[in-house]
Design goal:
metal ion binding, alpha/beta, zinc, EC 3.2.1.23, beta-galactosidase activity, 3 domains, hydrolase
C-alpha cells in the first residue's frame, strides 16, 4: 500500500526543507504528493517551465524509497495568466466573477485557459513521465470545489446552447420534450436558452427567491457542466498518458459534493481517487465512500489522495477535532481493509501563511514531531505486515445502484428537504446491510449488474425506459430486486411519467402507487412488516416519504393507523424466475435490518459470522478461499466481541478465544 502525505516544498526555506525531508525519510512512509498548487513556480512566465526547485526534492526522497505523485497545478492559475486573459474568470450563478486571490478562478471551458493547462500538463509529462521516483500523476485538484462547477460566463452559455442543439437537433424537439409550453416558455432558437439562475452546488446563493425554472433546463445544465469538467480533465489525462505508463487520475470530493458524475469522470483515468475527511474522535468511520470507490472502477483498487491528519483549524477557519490516540492508525487500516491502495494524509506540516494557514497536519508549524507523527510512523510499519492481505477479494453479493440524474433531479426539485437526501438515503441502506453482515458494492445504474444475487435500487427518481427493461430482465432471469419509494417517477428529460408508477416496472413489482406525500413529525404513521410468517411481525413508523400501494403483489408491510390503515406499503412479487420487492417509505434502522435480514439472509452465502456490537465495524474479505475479518472499534470505549472458534490474530499469530476484547480506537485482523 502506498502511504504518505501531501507536501509543499515551494513554501519552505532551505533550512525548513532540509529538516522536513529528514523527518519524512525517517517516518517510514513511501509516497508523497507535491506540486498541485505551484503553477507560478512551474511556469513563472508564459511558455517558460521551471522544475529545478522540485527536481532535487523528488530525487532526495526517491533515493530514500519515497516516490512522488506529481500534481498538475491547474486549480491555481497564476497572476500573469489572468492579466493576459481577463475574460477567463469563472462566473457563478449570480453572474459574479471569481477574481484572482483565491483558487479555482478559471473557467474550465475557456479555450485559451485550456491550452495553457494542456501546455503545463505536457511539460510535466515530458519532464517526469519516466522518472523512476514518480508513482503517478494527479490532474488539477478537487474539480468544481468551492462552488466552481457551474460556470455561467458568456463562453459557457454559448457552449451550453450548442450542446443542447447537438443533443436535441431542433428547437421544436426541445420544446416538446421539455414541456416548454408551461408558463409560455417555448423557444424559437437555442440561443434563447440561458444557464439557470439558481444552482444546486454547495455554497451557491439563490439569486432570485421563488424563481422556479424549467426542470429540464436545470437537469440538462447539470449534465452539460459535469461533462465539461470531465472534458477539461481528459485533455490533461490524454497528454500525460502519452508520456508515462504511471497511473493518471484526479481527486474527487465525496460522492456528489461537486456534482460531477464520477462514474463517467473516471472512465478515462487509471484509478478512482478521492479525498475523505471523517471525524476520527470516537466516531463511526463510514465505509460507504469506499464501497462507492470500488464501484467506480470495478476490480481496481482506489486511492485516497487526501485524508484526515489532525485537529485544529481548517480552510474555512472553523475547527476539526484531534483524532484520539490510535485513531489515525485505525482509520488507515480501515481504508486498506476497504480496498484502498494509496492513502495520503493532508498534510505533512501546517501552513504558516495563506488561506489554509494553521491547517491541521501530521506535524505542527514548529516542525517538532509529536503524537501524530509517531503514530504515522507506526502505521507505515504496520502496513508492511498487512501486505499479504492485498491479495484478498471482496465478498459482495448485493449491488446498490446509484444514478447522478436522480441525485440532480432531487436536488433541483426536492421532495422533503432536509429530511430526505438521495445519497444519504443510499448510504443508510448500505449501513444497515453492513450491520447485519451483508456486504454490498455501490455501482452505477448503467453498469452490468447481472452477476449480483440481489440489487437495491434507492429512490431512482429519474429512470429511463431502457434501464427499466434491463431491471425487468434481471428479475426475470432469477434476480432479487429491492426498490424503494420514488422509483421511476420521471423520464430522462426530467418530466413526470404520465403512466402508473413505478413507470415501466408495474408488471415487475405487481403494484401501482396510489397516493404519495412527504412524512413530517405531524403525520408519521405506524407500520407493520410481516417477515418469515404473519406471526413474525416488526412494528415501526414511516419516515421522509409515504406511498400507498395497490395490486396483486403479496403484502409484506402495511399501515396500521390513520386513513391509510391496512393499505399496502411493502410488497413482494414473483416475476419470471426472480422476486421484486417495493418499499414505499423509509424505515427506522432496526426495521430496515430486520427486512434485509429476512429477504437477503437466506440467499447470501458470504454473510459475516460475527455479530458486531454497536460501534464495532466488520469488514470481511476472502483470502485463500476462506472469509477473514477486520474489526474496528469506533465506540469510544473498550468492546467485547464474540467470534467463531478456531480463529487467529493475523498480526500476532496467536489463536484467539471466542470472546475477544478490542481497545478504544483499536482493531483486530482475524483469520
Amino acid at each position: 500500500m502506498l502511504y504518505g502525505v501531501s507536501y509543499y516544498p515551494e513554501h519552505k526555506s532551505n533550512e525548513e526543507l532540509k529538516w522536513d525531508l529528514k523527518l519524512i525519510k525517517e517516518s517510514g512512509i513511501n509516497t508523497v504528493r507535491m506540486g498541485e498548487f505551484s503553477w507560478c513556480r512551474m511556469e513563472p512566465e508564459e511558455g517558460r517551465y521551471d522544475f529545478s526547485w522540485l527536481d532535487p526534492v523528488i530525487e532526495e526522497l526517491g533515493q530514500a524509497g519515497i516516490r512522488t505523485i506529481v500534481g498538475t497545478p491547474t486549480a491555481c492559475p497564476p497572476a500573469w495568466m489572468v492579466e493576459a486573459w481577463p475574460d477567463m474568470f469563472y462566473q457563478d450563478n449570480r453572474r459574479i466573477c471569481r477574481p484572482f486571490g483565491g483558487r479555482r478562478h478559471g473557467c474550465y471551458n475557456h479555450e485559451t485557459y485550456r491550452k495553457a493547462c494542456a501546455g503545463i500538463a505536457k511539460a510535466i509529462g515530458k519532464h517526469y513521465g519516466r522518472n523512476p521516483y514518480v508513482a503517478g500523476f494527479q490532474i488539477d485538484n478537487e474539480l468544481a470545489q468551492e462552488g466552481t462547477g457551474r460556470c455561467t460566463c458568456k463562453n459557457c452559455r454559448k457552449k451550453f446552447q450548442v450542446w443542447l442543439e447537438q443533443k436535441y437537433g431542433g428547437i421544436e424537439t426541445f420544446n416538446r420534450k421539455s414541456g416548454a409550453i408551461f408558463w409560455s416558455q417555448e423557444y424559437r432558437a437555442f440561443e434563447q436558452i440561458n444557464p439557470p439562475v439558481n444552482a444546486i452546488e454547495p455554497g451557491a446563493q439563490i439569486q432570485i427567491r421563488d424563481f422556479y425554472e424549467s426542470p429540464t433546463v436545470r437537469l440538462e445544465f447539470e449534465r452539460f457542466s459535469s461533462e465539461s469538467q470531465i472534458e477539461f480533465q481528459n485533455i490533461q489525462a490524454d497528454i500525460l498518458k502519452a508520456f508515462t505508463s504511471y497511473p493518471v487520475t484526479t481527486n474527487g470530493t465525496g460522492l456528489v459534493t461537486n456534482s460531477i458524475d464520477y462514474f463517467k469522470g473516471f472512465e478515462n483515468l487509471d484509478c478512482y481517487a478521492f479525498d475523505y475527511y471523517p471525524n476520527l474522535r470516537d466516531a463511526w468511520v463510514d465505509s460507504f465512500p469506499y464501497a462507492f470507490g470500488r464501484g467506480v472502477k470495478p476490480d481496481l483498487p482506489f486511492w485516497v489522495m487526501e485524508f484526515m491528519s489532525g485537529g485544529g483549524h481548517r480552510l474555512s477557519g472553523t475547527g476539526r477535532l484531534q483524532p484520539g490516540p490510535g485513531a489515525l492508525k485505525q482509520a488507515v487500516v480501515q481504508a486498506f481493509a476497504n480496498g484502498a491502495d494509496l492513502l495520503l494524509h493532508y498534510q505533512f506540516r501546517s501552513f504558516p501563511a495563506g488561506a489554509e494557514q494553521l491547517n491541521y497536519a501530521i506535524v505542527d508549524l514548529d516542525g517538532i514531531p509529536r503524537r501524530r507523527y509517531y503514530e504515522m510512523q507506526e502505521t507505515a510499519n504496520l502496513l508492511k505486515q498487512l501486505e499479504p492481505l492485498k491479495e484478498t477479494s471482496f465478498c459482495s453479493e448485493v449491488g446498490i445502484l446509484l444514478d447522478y440524474d436522480s441525485h440532480w433531479a432531487l436536488k433541483i426539485k426536492p421532495v422533503n428537504e432536509p429530511e430526505f437526501s438521495y445519497m444519504d438515503f443510499a448510504g443508510k441502506l448500505y449501513y444497515n446491510l453492513e450491520r447485519i453482515g451483508i456486504h454490498s458494492d455501490v455501482i452505477s445504474l448503467e453498469r452490468d449488474f447481472l452477476s449480483y444475487k440481489a440489487l437495491v435500487l434507492p429512490a431512482s427518481f429519474v429512470l429511463k425506459k431502457e434501464t427499466a427493461k434491463r431491471l425487468q430482465e434481471y428479475v426475470k432471469q432469477g434476480g432479487i430486486l429491492i426498490a424503494t419509494f420514488l422509483t421511476s417517477v420521471k423520464n430522462e428529460d426530467n418530466l413526470g411519467y404520465t403512466i402508473p408508477l413505478p413507470a415501466h416496472l408495474v408488471e415487475v413489482f405487481g403494484v401501482t402507487v396510489q397516493e404519495v406525500e412527504p412524512v413530517f413529525d405531524s403525520n408519521r404513521t405506524k407500520l407493520g412488516i410481516r417477515l418469515a410468517s404473519e406471526e413474525d411481525e416488526v412494528e415501526t413508523r414511516d419516515k421522509a416519504w409515504s406511498e400507498l400501494l395497490a395490486g396483486n403483489a403479496k403484502l409484506l408491510g402495511y399501515y396500521k393507523d390513520t386513513y391509510k390503515k391496512d393499505s399496502m406499503v411493502i410488497s413482494q412479487h414473483s416475476f419470471g424466475e426472480g422476486t421484486a420487492y417495493y418499499v414505499g417509505t423509509d424505515l427506522e434502522d432496526s426495521a430496515w435490518r430486520a427486512l434485509f435480514k429476512s429477504l437477503l439472509g437466506p440467499v447470501c452465502n458470504w454473510k459475516d459470522e460475527i455479530e458486531a456490537p454497536e460501534g464495532v465495524q466488520v469488514i470481511s474479505r476472502i483470502w485463500q478461499e476462506k472469509q477473514i475479518y477486520f474489526l474496528f472499534n469506533f465506540s469510544g470505549q473498550e468492546k467485547t466481541v464474540c467470534i467463531p472458534a478456531g480463529k487467529s490474530d493475523f498480526l500476532t499469530k496467536e489463536e484467539l478465544l471466542q470472546e475477544i476484547i478490542i481497545a478504544q480506537n483499536g482493531f483486530k485482523v482475524i483469520v
